[in-house]
Every structure is written in structure tokens, then in C-alpha cells.
């Protein structure tokens, strides 16, 4: 098949455009702070993960043995959050931003959340605000397979961990103590705050 010079130029341009587009798909998004992030340390094996999960459950059981759930209490409040605006906000602000609200913890799950907040705050006390270091520390503490998201923005490392109805969110900033808090899942699902809602 013989092609004209114009066809060859068009074909070469299309191939070059496709190569640039495909190369861009593998690059991290600008502004996520992860452009030069080192590769994550290897995750524990399935057997190690089972041992870690058992260790986490033992810590919960030891601390929360006296907290018992009622017959219909799974530890999270399934009621919809209030749709009433607070303060000087536009109409429907609460409705439009409901996806950003996490369900509150109660009963046994509130106790479980407190156990993990204490454990992580102590375990991350001497860990630098470096994504690879935080990821490795979370794995050493037994949370490696439960991490839903870990990212770095402007030198601050943030992570979200899902523990079956209990979510733990933490932040490590240079020169500050770790900030760790427990909450229920977000209304849109999962433990990582959704970027946008339905």
C-alpha cells in the first residue's frame, strides 16, 4: 500500500499524539503531592495480615469487653444527618454537602475507635511526616491491609483506615504530633472523605 506524503504526516502526528496521551495516563496528577513519592514498602503476606488482624481484634476485645451492643446497635448511627443549615449559609447547603459527613460512632464501635486512636497516636509519635515512613509504620502496627488511602500534600501525610464499621483518619505534619480521630463511614461509603457526592 502506497501512502502520500500528507497521509504519512497525518499518521505520524496521530501516533505521536497517542504516545503523549498514553504517557500522561501513567503520570501522577499534578498537585496531589505524590509526584516524587518513593515506592511503597512491600505489604505483609496474607498469613501476616491474618495475624495482624487478630492482634487488632485482641486489642479491641481487651479494651471493649464491657461495652456491649444493644440488639439493634451495630455501633453506627444510620439516621440521616440533619439537613438544617448552621449559621449564615446558603439554602440547601447541608443537603448539598451531606456526602462529606461521616456517621457517628456509638456503643462498641465508639470504644473500638478509641482503642485505635490511642494505639495509632502512640505508635506514630516518633514517625517523621514522610509517606513511606508512615506507610511502613502502619504496616508494622498491623494496619497495612486496612489502609484505604494514604497521600501527601504540602509535606503533610494523611491516611484513612477502614476497620469494619470504624474509620480512623490521621494526619502527620512536620514538627507536630500526629492527629488521629475515629468516625463512622461516610454517607457515600468508605472511610476516605469523598471528593464529590451525588
Q: What would you say this structure looks like, in words?
A:
This protein has 198 residues and is α+β, with helices and mostly antiparallel strands. 36% of the residues lie in helices and 13% in strands. It has five helices and four strands; from the N terminus they run αααααββββ. The protein has helices at residues 5-25, 46-64, 93-96, 107-123, 131-140; strands at 147-153, 156-162, 167-172, 179-183. The chain has a four-stranded antiparallel β-sheet with strand order 1-2-3-4, with helices on one face. It is globular and about 45 Å long. The termini are far apart. The model is unreliable at 14-37, 43-50, 69-73 and 76-85 (pLDDT under 50).
Amino acid at each position: 500500500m502506497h501512502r502520500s506524503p500528507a497521509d504519512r504526516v497525518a499518521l505520524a502526528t496521530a501516533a505521536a499524539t497517542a504516545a503523549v496521551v498514553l504517557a500522561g495516563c501513567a503520570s501522577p496528577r499534578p498537585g496531589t503531592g505524590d509526584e516524587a513519592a518513593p515506592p511503597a514498602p512491600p505489604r505483609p503476606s496474607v498469613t501476616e495480615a491474618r495475624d495482624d488482624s487478630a492482634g487488632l481484634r485482641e486489642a479491641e476485645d481487651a479494651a471493649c469487653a464491657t461495652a456491649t451492643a444493644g440488639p439493634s446497635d451495630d455501633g453506627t448511627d444510620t439516621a440521616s444527618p440533619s439537613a438544617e443549615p448552621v449559621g449564615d449559609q446558603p439554602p440547601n447547603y447541608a443537603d448539598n454537602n451531606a456526602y462529606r459527613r461521616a456517621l457517628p460512632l456509638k456503643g462498641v464501635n465508639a470504644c473500638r475507635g478509641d482503642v485505635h486512636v490511642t494505639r495509632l497516636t502512640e505508635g506514630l509519635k516518633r514517625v517523621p511526616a514522610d509517606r513511606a515512613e508512615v506507610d511502613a509504620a502502619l504496616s508494622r502496627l498491623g494496619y497495612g491491609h486496612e489502609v484505604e488511602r494514604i497521600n501527601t500534600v504540602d509535606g503533610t501525610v494523611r491516611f484513612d483506615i477502614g476497620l469494619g464499621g470504624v474509620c480512623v483518619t490521621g494526619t502527620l505534619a512536620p514538627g507536630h504530633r500526629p492527629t488521629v480521630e475515629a468516625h463512622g463511614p461516610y454517607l457515600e461509603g468508605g472511610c476516605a472523605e469523598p471528593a464529590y457526592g451525588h
